[in-house]
Structure formats: C-alpha cells, structure tokens
Write the structure tokens for this entry.
Amino acid sequence: MNEASRTLLAVSGLHHWFGGLHVIDGVEFSCRQGIVKAIIGPNGAGKTTLLNLIAGSLRPRTGSIAFDGHPIAGIPPHQVAARGISRTFQATRLFPRMSVLENVMVGSHVRGRQGFFAGLIGPAATGREERRIRRDCMAVLDELGIADLAARDAVSLPFGRQRVVEFARALASQPRLLLLDEPACGLNPKETEEIGGLIADIRARGITVLIVEHDMSLVMGISDEVVVLSYGRKIAEGTPSEVQANHEVVSVYLGASDA
Amino acid sequence: MRPTLARYIPFVVLVGLVVAAQTALSALKLEFYLTQLTMAAYYTLVALGLCLLMGYAGQVSLGHAGFFAIGGYTSAVLTTVNLAATGAAAGAGAAAGGVAGAAGAGALIGLLSRLGILVTGTDAYGGQTLTVLPWAAFAAALLVTAVVAVLVGIPVLRLRGHYLAMATLAFGVIVARVAVGTRIFGEADGISDVPAFRLFAGLAISGKKALRVQNYYIAWAMVAAGFLLLINLIGSRAGRALRAIHGNEAAASAMGVDVPRHKLAAFLLSALYAAVGGACLVHFNGGIGPGEASVMKSVRYVALVAVGGMGSAGGTLAVSTLLTFLSLRGAFGQLDDAVFGAILVAIMLFAPDGVFAPVGGWILRLLRGRRGARGAAR
C-alpha cells in the first residue's frame, strides 16, 4: 500500500447517546492519509460530537476508532494528542493570561520531555529544550504570518486573529491528523477565505485534515472527500461534486436548510 | 533583556530587600522586629505554595492551614515525645510478659536508635530523654504531608470551583478537629518545648535571642529558595501546562496535558511548601497550637494570595510579608481575623486581579500618556 492511499483514521460502528438522544447512530467512515476530509450536516446532526469522540473528550458508547491501525476509542484526550492528533475548537479556546507565543508553546507540550522536577530546577535543566520549543513555535507563528503578535495577550486579539493563533497552537504539536471544528464559524467572508488558504497550506505540508463545517463554500472548495451526517447517521460520502449531486443530500440537508 | 532573565529580577530584588531590612533594623537598634519578620517568612512560604496552586494552576484550597499544621505537628511531636519513657514502659511491659505491641514499640525504638536518628538529653527534672532528631522529624513531616496530600488530592481535585473549595475546607476542618481533640497533639494546649533544629555546624532554627539575626536569614533564605523554584517552574513546560489548565482544562487536555497529574503535582508541591513553613516555625517558636490549623488561617492564606494578585508570586510574597508582619505586631488587635476576612471581600469586589494590577495599569497609562504627549510635542 503506498503512502498516499494509506488509511490514517478508521471509524466503524460508532454509537453515542446523551440520555435518550441518539446523536451518533452507527457512523462508519475512513480517512486516507494526506487528504482533507469534511464532515457536513445540518445543525444537530452530531458533527461536533463525532469530533469529540475522535479527540477523546467523549467516550463512545460502542464502536471503534482506529488511528494508524491502533484503537483509540475511549482513551483520554491527552493520550490522543500524544499519538499525533491535534484539534481546534468551534468557539476558540485560547488560554487567557498567556501570550500568543506561550499559547503556542503549550501546543507543543507533547513534543517536550521536561517535567515538574526539571521545571523547579530551572534553565540549567530545561534551557536547551525550552530554546528549541521557543524556536519551533516562533517558526510556526512565522509560517502563519502572525510572528508580530507573539508577545501579545492572546485573548485580547480580534476574533479572526485568535482563530489563526488556535491553528498555530494545534500545529505546534506537529500532528499527523488535525481536527478542525467549524473553523469558519463567526468569521467574515474574507477571513473565511484566509482560513481556506491556511487549510490548503496545511494539507500541502502532508498533514491530514478532518474538518467539521457549516460553510458550504469553504467545504466544497478545499475538501477531497465529504461525509454527510443527518440525525447521527451517515447519509452520503464522496467527492464534493458527488455529494452535491446526491439526491438525498439535497433533500435532507440542503433542502432542509434552504426551507 | 532576554525574557527568561527578566523573570529573575523579582528574586534579586527580594534578596536585596532582605539584606537591606536586616542592616537597617540592626543599625537602628530595632532588631526585635526581626523576630516577627522571621515568623512572617515561614507563613509566606505557605502563601507562596498556595499561589502556585491557586494563582497559577487555578485550583482553590481552603485547607492549606491543614498542611501547615501537619508539617508543624509532626515535627513537634517527634522532637518532644520522650521515647525513653515509652521505651522503658515497653521494656517493663515486655518483662512482665505484657502485650506484643509494647515489645514491638521497644524494638522500633531500638531500630531507630541504631539508625542514629534518636537524640538523648535531659528534661527539666534531670531525667533522661530520648527524642527523634529534628532532621529526621523534618523528613517525616514532609513524608506525612506528601502522603496526606496525595490521598486527599486524588479524589478532591476531580472537583471544580466551589465544590473543590468546600472539599478542601472540609479537609482543613478535619485537621483542626484532630489537632484539638488528640492527646498526643496536646489538645487545646498544643505542643511546647520543641527543641532547636540544628541544621549544620553553627546554624540552628531557634527562638533564642542570640540567634535572632541568624534565624532571620535562615527563614528568608528558605523563602528566597522557594521563590526561585517557583519562578523556575512557572516559566517551564510544566508551569505553562498549569497555567493552561487554569485557563481552559479542555483545551489543555487536547494539547496533550495530563490534567489530573499536573493538578496533583501542583497540589502536592504547594502542600510541601506549607509543611516546610510549619515544620520550621515550630522550632523557631518552640511550639505549636491548634489555632495554626484553624479555618481562619486557611482563609487568611487565600486572602494573601488574592491580594497579591492571583498568578503573581512576587505580589503574593510582598503582600504576605507586609500583612503577616503587621498582624504579628498586633496592628489589627482583636479584629485580626476580621481584617483578613474584610480584605478578602474588598479585593474580590474592587480589585479581583490583586492590588498590584490596578496600580500597574495606572503606571502603564501614565507612561503611555507621557509618551503620547512627547510625540504630540514633536
């Protein structure tokens, strides 16, 4: 199997419910390495829940999630992150009282080794690693064009900038899979376009992207494949054009939201 | 200057102020102030530890007087209980064919004696005493505190906000009630006649007047060391993880931070800071009473951290030294606890980021204003 067609993420028979509400109902899909895959669907379709199940913030009731062939369903988020899956949040969740650079340095947590004890001892023990982390994180800020914001208080930035910082934080771990939860949410068309360009750049660097999104123009422009969810069930999967031509998608999803 | 070096400026300022204060007070023949400054140092150690937990990691504890008391009482008991008496009693019991437990106690004392951690002396009546060496008692105090902190921390740190505050408050109440209700802890009288703690040649933690200057420096060296370790930690990978947990637990976890582990480590470390303060202060004061474990003391530590500005070790250090010193000098009289309560309420209402944040903002505005004016003039 060559590198490009290798399956990086495989989800099968996934079920989740909150009380009596079946939010994920037997979802099954896989994601090849190096592509951008989108999960779309009307409000309440279970998109964010699906992302949270993959990221480990929720434990699936039944079903399996395999990352690079290893089961990850039900393991805590920090272990999921350690395996090379990073994420952003629908409402940006930057760390307050920390600078942009510090936020991104937390993003590189999984790439560091120095623990509490070394931290207490100080630069004599941690200096080398700290310098590397700082340099790498500055490089990430530079790539995303926000190096000038490094020293700024992260949460005082305009919303659009905060989103880019959150991307930088997620990329600082050098993930193999990036989970994006509605990255265009709350952005204006120009900022949305910018985010689209950013995702294309990330794809070009060989990072696989799984994106949950509402904004159709963004999804159809950047995705290699699309999964359509409705009421927790997968109703279609394919390339953007295939999905757009799918009769069920048009009636259930596009039709419903147009009405 | 590089940001990593700038972090250490407050430490240098602290060392300078400590030396300056002693020099000035000695020159002005006001050395008696050093006694309260020494005590204030040990209480400040508790505040610094709590600052790490509350200010940086964002986990509130209303039970830190409990850890101070565990450290203090463990040291006090071990260095005052006369094992010669219990040993003799155990020997007599064993000779009379008594309980195996008594023989076990005798064997334990023999073992401790062979390890060289017991010390003989004479009591006020000329009788022989056998007590645990202060160094060993100190180590035991930290060990006991660590065990309790882990056992309490694992379940309690699963809680958040008000629930965590209530659980730690309950822990503090338990420690206070145990202290006041247990015979070996001296009940309401506490423990007195705690001996000096000989650190090494010529240095001892003791309340003797002749050792006043020396003890001032021992205490403040510990605060300086504690402060330095804290500055190191806060700027490190682990420190960033703690601040991230404070900011947003879900996001910290998604970035790979093992949240429960980091919380527990911060809790343990801050408990150890408190225990070191307690264990040293008993040797300086020569005793400890149940008041040290009281809930009002815990509230006081929280107030000190809050006034200093949550997330500012330097601010906590400054405020704790000043207010604790004033309190020990009796500046607040009968209203001591009320003053700290009132300070906490006032801070929460008017300056939730601590007293230094508004002042800092004011200075910043002033500087900006002046720079703006200068720009306009040009």
